[in-house]
Amino acid sequence: MQDIYMVLLLAAVFVLFAGFMHWCDRSIQEEEKR
Fold it and tell me: What is the Cβ-side half-sphere exposure of residue 18, based on CA atoms within 13 angstroms?
């Protein structure tokens, strides 16, 4: 049962990190457009 929580935690961290990187990349592109 503990393994499931570890996998879910890793997946959640990965999704948050990927989303953050995507948001940063979009913000940088917005800055370049101005």
Answer: 6
